[in-house]
Specification:
The complex is a heterotrimer.
Chain A lengths: L1 H17 L9 E4 L4 E3 L10 E6 L4 H21 L2 E6 L6 H11 L4 E4 L4 H5 L7 E5 L5 E6 L5 H13 L7
Parallel strand pairs in A: 3-4, 4-5
Antiparallel strand pairs in A: 1-2, 1-5, 3-6, 6-7
Chain B lengths: L1 H15 L25 E7 L6 H15 L4 E7 L17 H9 L7 E4 L13 H12 L5 E11 L4 E10 L8 E9 L2 E2 L2 E2 L5 E2 L3 E2 L2 E5 L6 E2 L6 E9 L2 E2 L4 E2 L5 E9 L5 E8 L1
Parallel strand pairs in B: 1-2
Antiparallel strand pairs in B: 1-3, 4-5, 5-13, 6-11, 6-12, 6-16, 7-10, 8-9, 14-15, 16-17
Helix pairs in contact in B: 2-4
Chain C lengths: L1 H19 L8 E13 L17 E13 L2 E11 L11 E13 L2 E8 L2 E2 L5 E2 L2 E2 L4 E2 L2 E11 L2 E12 L2 E2 L3 E10 L10 E13 L12 E13 L2 E10 L14 E12 L2 E11 L43 E12 L11 E13 L6 E2 L5 E2 L12 E19 L2 E13 H4 L16 E16 L2 E11 L7 E10 L3 E9 L11 E11 L2 E10 L2 E5 L2 E5 L2 E11 L1
Antiparallel strand pairs in C: 1-2, 1-33, 2-3, 3-4, 4-5, 5-10, 6-7, 8-9, 10-11, 11-12, 11-13, 13-14, 14-15, 15-16, 16-17, 17-18, 18-19, 19-20, 20-23, 21-22, 23-24, 24-25, 25-26, 26-27, 27-28, 28-29, 29-30, 30-33, 31-32
The chains are: A alpha/beta, B alpha+beta, C mainly beta.
C-alpha cells in the first residue's frame, strides 16, 4: 500500500514536469452527420481553439455556452477563435444534440463523445470542462466548472495568447 | 491479414453464440424427497421483511429448494431485519430481533431479499447472495463431506417463565482446519400468520411466515467450543418471545432449534442441525 | 499482474522525465485526475429516528486517481480507487482499495489494440455498452482484449473478449463480441448531405450452469442491426436487437427470447428542433452473469427515452428503466423566437416542450406449479412474444421550459412539469408479473414549477436564484424550495438552499432540509464543502431497491486534474 502511494505520488510529480507540450489525443469523435473524425485533427488555421465538454442535461454547461454565444461573433472577429463543443451525452440523449444546438442558436462546431472516450483520455472529472488550445493545438489552459463571468476571463486568455504571451496558470 | 483475422474471429463468434433449450426441457427432472445427502447440511439464512414486496418470491424459492433436498439436508432461517422489517399500521408485527439487526449490520447488508448459504465467501466480500444464486450454491455445498455431527435434544420447558432449555453434542467426524470454532444456537418459529406485503404491494393479512428467526440461545455469534478432544457437549436456554403489546407471542409447539458450528475466522459454517420441539 | 503494469507505467514515466529537459524529443505525457468525496454524518433523530442511516464509521470517504500516459499512438493508464468506506447510498461492494482499472492501448496501420480494461459501446448500446458513472456507483469496465480494425475508410470492425468488473473482482461470465459499421459517405463523393450508416453487432456470454432445477443455457447471445439515415435536416436512427434464451435472476428465470427496438427521428432547421422517439424493450436486461443486483455486470444499455431532470424537486421523480420490459414514446419540440419578434422580445426567447411516457408490456403470463405448490413463472417461457403495450403505466412526463433574457444583466428560465409516476414500480421495484390488480399500485400525480434567475450584478459578480414548487397529494406530499447562489468569477461561490416538505402526510415529517455550500475553483482544481440535511431518495434496479437515506452532516468534494 505504501509502495503504491509513493508510486502514485511520484507519478504526480513526473506529470507536472511533462505537461507543457500537450495536444488532443487521437480519439474518434462523431460529428452530427454520423461521420467519425479524429480529435487530434481539429484545426483552426493557426488560431486558438476552445474545446468545451458539455451535455444537454448539464445546466451550468448550457449557461456557459449560452454566455459565450452571446458574444461569439465579437470573439471571432477580434481573435479568430473557434469553439468546439464536445457533447458527452450518451445514446439516451445523443439524438437530441443536433436539434438542441439548433434551437439554442449556437454556431459552434459540435461533436459527440458518446461513450466518453475523449473525456476520459483528457482526464475530465466533471463537466463543464473547458480547454484552451493555442494555434499549434497545444493545450495551454484548462478549467473545470462554470461561474458566470468565467467567459470574460477566457477571452482575456485568448487575447493574451494572440499577443504571444505565455499563460501561467 | 486484418481481414483474415476478422473473419476468423467472426466465425468463432457464430459458432459459440448461443445454446437453445427446447421447450419442455427447461426443467430438470427433480425427484422431490428422494435426495440422499452426504450428511453435510446446508444452512440458508434468508434476510427478509414484512414490508418487502420481493421477499415472498424469494421465500418461495427457498422452500422449493427445501422440498427438493428435504428438511434434513437444507435448513432454512428467515431473518427479519433492515428498514423493511419494521412495524406500521398495516404490519403490526415485524419479527425483528436484536440479533438479526446485529447480523444485518455486521455483514453490511443493504437490502432484502438476500441470503447467506453456509455463510461462505465472507473473506472475499461475497457473502451476500441474491435468490438467483441460492440453488447453485446449495447444490454445490451439499456435495461436501461432513466434518462433524451435531445432535440436539429438548431438556425442559417452563410454561410460566417461557424458558426453553436444550442440550446436545458435537462429534468431529472429519478434519476441521480451524482452532477458532464457535457453536451457535438459534430459535426459529413456523406457521406464524401475520400481514406481509406481497409482490403487487398489496398486504396479505393471512400470510404464513415459516422459519422466522426468534433469537439466539447464546448470543449473535455464539460461543467458542473446544473440539480438540474430538467431541463436546453443550447446554443452553432461551426465553420465548412474549410481546403482549402487539400480540407477538411465540408458540412453543411451532418452534425449531437450529445449532451450527462455524469457523470464527472465516464465518463459514461447518455443520448444522435442527430439531422441531 | 497489477504490479507489473504499475512498474511498466512508472518506467515509462521515468523515461519521460529524464528526457523532458534533455534532448527535446517527445517522450510522451502523463496526465491524471483526482477526486475525493467525504462526508461526516451527524445523528438526526428527526429524519432518521432509529439511526438506520447513521454509519458506525461517522466519517466515510471515497477517492480516485486516474493516470494516463500518452506518447503518439501509445496510451496506458491506471485508476487507483479507495473507499473507506463508500458513502451511504452507494453500493457497499466498493470497499477497500486497489487498482481495478489499468490498460495499454496502441494504434498502428489502422489497427487499434487495447489490453486490460476498456469501455466500449456498439450502436446505441442495446447490444453492448460498458461505461462508468461514478455518481451511481456504476463501473462495468471490461477486462480483456479489444481490437478495432479500420478495414478501409468508412468500414470499421471491432472485436472484443473479456470479463466484466464487479466491484474489485471480475464477473463469472466470459463475454465475447464484435461490431461492424459501414459509413456510405466514405465510399463516394463527400459533398452529399445525404448519408446512410449501417451497423451490425453481436455479443455472447458463456457461464457454466449447475442449477439443480433448471436446464440453463451456458451460452447466451444477443445481436443487433442498426441504421442511421441522414438527409439534410432530417436524421433517423433505428436499432433492433434480439437476445437468445437468458433465464436469470432479473427476469425470474424465464426462457422467452428478448427483443429491443430503439428509434429516433429528428428534424433541425433554423430555430426549430423536433424529435420523436420510440422504445420497446422486452426482457432485454443483459448481464454478463445470471445473477446480479442493481447495475452489477450489465452488458448493455437501454436508453430510457425520458428527459433527465436536474432541478432538485422534479428530479425526485426521475425515471428508471424497467428491466423486465417497457414501451414508450417521446416527443420534443424546441424553438427559438428571434430577437425583435413579439415572443422573442429584445434578446430572443427559447421554448422547449417535452412529452414522454412508458408502459408495461401486455404480458399474458404462463405459470407452472412450483415444487412447494406455489405458482411461479420461473422455468416457463414467461409470457408471449411481442406482447405489445399493457395497461400498467410506469410514467408520463410533460414539461415546458422557457428561457429568456429580461435585460442586459438578467436572464430567466421558467419551467413547468406534469408527471404521472408509478411509485410502486419505479421506486419500490414491484415487478409486473406479480401485479394482480393495477389499482393496488401507488401512482403519484405531480405538478411542479421552477423559476430561475441569473443576475449579473457587476463584472464577475452574479447571483443565481431558484424557486421551486412541487405539488402532489400522494407519496411524501408537496414541497417548496428556494436556492440562492452568489458567485465571484472565476474562483468563489457560496450557496444556501432550503427544501421544505410542507405537505408530508405525517405532520412530524414536515421537515426543512437546509443546505449551505461553498466552493472554490482554481484552474482545474475545485473544492466544495456542504453542510446540512439532505432529503431521502430511493434507488431501484432489477426488482431490488436501495434506499438512499436522508442524511445530515458535512460533506466535502475535491476534484483536480492535470
Amino acid at each position: 500500500m505504501r509502495n503504491l502511494l509513493s508510486t502514485l505520488s511520484l507519478g504526480l510529480i513526473l506529470s507536472f514536469s511533462l505537461s507543457a507540450q500537450d495536444k488532443l489525443p487521437n480519439i474518434q469523435l462523431k460529428d452530427l452527420s454520423g461521420n467519425m473524425i479524429d480529435a487530434s485533427s481539429l484545426k483552426n488555421d493557426g488560431k486558438p481553439i476552445v474545446v468545451s465538454f458539455w451535455a444537454t442535461w448539464c445546466k451550468p454547461c448550457i449557461r456557459e455556452l449560452n454566455a459565450i454565444n452571446d458574444q461569439y461573433i465579437d470573439w471571432q472577429e477580434e481573435t479568430g477563435v473557434k469553439l468546439v463543443a464536445v457533447s458527452v451525452d450518451d445514446s439516451r440523449n445523443s439524438s437530441r444534440v443536433k436539434p438542441f444546438t439548433k434551437s439554442q442558436g449556437w454556431e459552434y462546431e459540435v461533436y459527440l463523445d458518446e461513450n466518453q472516450e475523449l473525456k476520459r483520455a483528457l482526464n475530465v472529472n466533471n463537466i463543464p470542462h473547458t480547454f484552451l488550445l493555442d494555434g499549434e493545438g497545444n493545450i495551454v489552459w484548462q478549467h473545470n466548472g462554470y461561474i458566470p463571468g468565467d467567459e470574460d476571463h477566457l477571452l482575456e486568455l485568448i487575447e493574451k495568447l494572440n499577443a504571444g504571451l505565455a499563460i501561467e496558470e | 491479414m486484418k481481414k483474415t483475422l476478422f473473419f476468423a474471429l467472426s466465425l468463432l463468434f457464430a459458432l459459440s453464440a448461443c445454446d437453445e433449450i427446447p421447450e419442455g426441457e427447461y426443467l430438470k427432472n427433480v425427484e422431490v424427497g428422494g435426495y440422499e445427502g452426504t450428511g453435510h447440511k446446508v444452512f440458508l439464512e434468508e434476510f427478509t421483511g414484512v414490508k418487502c414486496n420481493n421477499c415472498p418470491a424469494a421465500n418461495a424459492k427457498a422452500k422449493e429448494l427445501q422440498s427438493i433436498y428435504g428438511k434434513e439436508n437444507l435448513i432454512l432461517l428467515g431473518i427479519h431485519a433492515g428498514n423493511l422489517a419494521t412495524t406500521d399500521a398495516k404490519h403490526p408485527k415485524a419479527f425483528n430481533t436484536p440479533e438479526g439487526t446485529e447480523l444485518f449490520n455486521f455483514f453490511q447488508l443493504f437490502g432484502v431479499p438476500v441470503g447467506f448459504v453456509n455463510r461462505i465467501d465472507h473473506s472475499t466480500g461475497g457473502i451476500i447472495k441474491g435468490e438467483g444464486d441460492w440453488a447453485g450454491l446449495v447444490a454445490q455445498e451439499l456435495e461436501r463431506l461432513p466434518v462433524a455431527e451435531i445432535t440436539i435434544q429438548e431438556d425442559s420447558y417452563n410454561s410460566s417463565t417461557r424458558e426453553l432449555s436444550v442440550s446436545g453434542t458435537v462429534q468431529v467426524t472429519g478434519t476441521i482446519n480451524s482452532s477458532n470454532v464457535h457453536l451457535c444456537l438459534y430459535l426459529a418459529e413456523n406457521g406464524i400468520i401475520s400481514p406481509q406485503t406481497m409482490g403487487d404491494k398489496s398486504v396479505n393479512e393471512n400470510y404464513k411466515h415459516d422459519h422466522v428467526f426468534r433469537g439466539s440461545f447464546n448470543g449473535t455469534y455464539g460461543a467458542p467450543i473446544d473440539l480438540s478432544s474430538g467431541n463436546a457437549t453443550f447446554s443452553e436456554s432461551i426465553t420465548l418471545v412474549n410481546n403482549t403489546a402487539n400480540g407477538d407471542i411465540a408458540v412453543k409447539e411451532n418452534c425449531e432449534v437450529i445449532a451450527f458450528i462455524y469457523d470464527k475466522d472465516t464465518y463459514e459454517i461447518l455443520q448444522a442441525q435442527s430439531i422441531e420441539i | 499482474m497489477k504490479r507489473i503494469l504499475l512498474a511498466l507505467f512508472l518506467g515509462l514515466g521515468l523515461i519521460g522525465q529524464t528526457s523532458a529537459q534533455g534532448d527535446g524529443k517527445d517522450y510522451g505525457q502523463i496526465h491524471g485526475n483526482f477526486q475525493t468525496n467525504a462526508q461526516y454524518y451527524l445523528r438526526d433523530t428527526l429524519i432518521d429516528p432509529n439511526g438506520n442511516a447513521f454509519p458506525d464509521e461517522r466519517l466515510l470517504a471515497a477517492g480516485f486517481l486516474n493516470l494516463v500516459y500518452t506518447k503518439g499512438n501509445f496510451m496506458a493508464g491506471i485508476r487507483y480507487e479507495n473507499y473507506q468506506n463508500n458513502l451511504i447510498g452507494l453500493p457497499e461492494g466498493f470497499k477497500g482499495e486497489g487498482i481495478p482499472y489499468r490498460f495499454a492501448r496502441y494504434k498502428k496501420d489502422g489497427l487499434d489494440i487495447t489490453v486490460g480494461n476498456y469501455y466500449e459501446q456498439f450502436g446505441s448500446g442495446l447490444v453492448f455498452r460498458t461505461y462508468e458513472e461514478r455518481g451511481l456507483g456504476l463501473d462495468n469496465a471490461m477486462d480483456g482484449l479489444r481490437l478495432i480494425f479500420d478495414i478501409r475508410p468508412g468500414l470499421t470492425a471491432k472485436a472484443l473478449v473479456g470479463r466484466q468488473r464487479i466491484y474489485f473482482q471480475t464477473g463469472d461470465g466470459i463475454v465475447r463480441g464484435g461490431d461492424l459499421e459501414l459509413n456510405l459517405n466514405e465510399f463516394r463523393d463527400k459533398a452529399s448531405s445525404t448519408n446512410l450508416i449501417v451497423g451490425a453487432s453481436m455479443i455472447s456470454r458463456f457461464q457454466e450452469a449447475q442449477d439443480p432445477i433448471y436446464n440453463l443455457p451456458e451460452n447466451v447471445a444477443s445481436a443487433g442491426l442498426r441504421a442511421n439515415f441522414i438527409a439534410g435536416d432530417f436524421n433517423i436512427f433505428a436499432e433492433y436487437a434480439y437476445k437468445s434464451q437468458d433465464p436469470n435472476s432479473t427476469n425470474r428465470f424465464i426462457y422467452k427470447p428478448g427483443h429491443a427496438i430503439y428509434a429516433t427521428g429528428s428534424y433541425a432547421k433554423g430555430n426549430l428542433g423536433l424529435i420523436l422517439g420510440y422504445k420497446y424493450y422486452d426482457n432485454f436486461m443483459f448481464r454478463s452473469q445470471r445473477v446480479g443486483n442493481f447495475t452489477e455486470a450489465m452488458i448493455n444499455y437501454l436508453p430510457p427515452l425520458a428527459e433527465l431532470h436536474t432541478y432538485a424537486l422534479p428530479a425526485l421523480y426521475s425515471y428508471n428503466i424497467q428491466s423486465n420490459g417497457e414501451t414508450g414514446i417521446q416527443a420534443e419540440l424546441s424553438y427559438k423566437f428571434d430577437r425583435g419578434t413579439l415572443l422573442g422580445g429584445k434578446y430572443g426567447t427559447l421554448l422547449n416542450l417535452n412529452f414522454s411516457n412508458a408502459y408495461a408490456l401486455n404480458k399474458d403470463f404462463t405459470f407452472r406449479q412450483g415444487l412447494d405448490s406455489s405458482q411461479t413463472i420461473s422455468g416457463t417461457d414467461g409470457y408471449q412474444d411481442w406482447a405489445g403495450i399493457g395497461n400498467i403505466q410506469y410514467s408520463q412526463d410533460f414539461n415546458v421550459e422557457v428561457k429568456t433574457k429580461i435585460n442586459k444583466n438578467l436572464k430567466g428560465t421558467f419551467s413547468y412539469y406534469n408527471f404521472v409516476y408509478n411509485r410502486s414500480a419505479l421506486l419500490d421495484g414491484v415487478i409486473d408479473d406479480l401485479v394482480s390488480d393495477p389499482n393496488n399500485l401507488d401512482m403519484v400525480y405531480v405538478n411542479a414549477a421552477v423559476a430561475e434567475f441569473l443576475w449579473k450584478i457587476k463584472p464577475k459578480h452574479s447571483l443565481r436564484t431558484e424557486a421551486q414548487i412541487m405539488l402532489t397529494e400522494q407519496d411524501r406530499g408537496s414541497w417548496a424550495m428556494l436556492l440562492l447562489e452568489y458567485s465571484i468569477a472565476p474562483e468563489w461561490f457560496v450557496a444556501v438552499q432550503d427544501a421544505y416538505n410542507y405537505g408530508h402526510p405525517d405532520p412530524d415529517l414536515r421537515v426543512h432540509y437546509p443546505i449551505i455550500s461553498m466552493g472554490y475553483t482554481r484552474g482545474t482544481t475545485k473544492f466544495q464543502v456542504n453542510y446540512g440535511r439532505q432529503q431521502e431518495g430511493v434507488f431501484c434496479v432489477g426488482g431490488i431497491c436501495r434506499v438512499v437515506p436522508a442524511s445530515n452532516g458535512f460533506s466535502m468534494m475535491i476534484t483536480s486534474n492535470f
